[in-house]
Design brief:
about 80 residues; mainly alpha; 2 helices; about 75% helix; about 0% strand
Length: about 80
């Protein structure tokens, strides 16, 4: 039973590392996009851009609230 538990843990560890790598890639892409001001020109900013960024912020807030046990996930 110990051997199968170790094998199961190895599989879980591999899956965890793969999921973390996926998140790291997404975060890096978002950081690059943010550094480029979400591919916008300051002279062309309109309320649609604001709405899009607020939507992105809301989705990210759901993630950070869950990860840090804040907002609706607070204890």
């Amino acid at each position: 039973m110990t051997i199968s538990r170790a094998a199961s843990n190895d599989k879980a560890l591999d899956a965890f590392i793969a999921a973390k790598a996926e998140i790291d890639v997404m975060l890096e892409r978002l950081k690059t996009l943010s550094d480029d001001h979400f591919e916008t020109n300051p002279d062309e900013i309109h309320w649609g851009h604001v709405g899009t960024l607020k939507h992105y912020a809301g989705l990210l807030r759901q993630i950070t609230d869950s990860a840090f046990k804040e907002g609706e996930h607070a204890a």
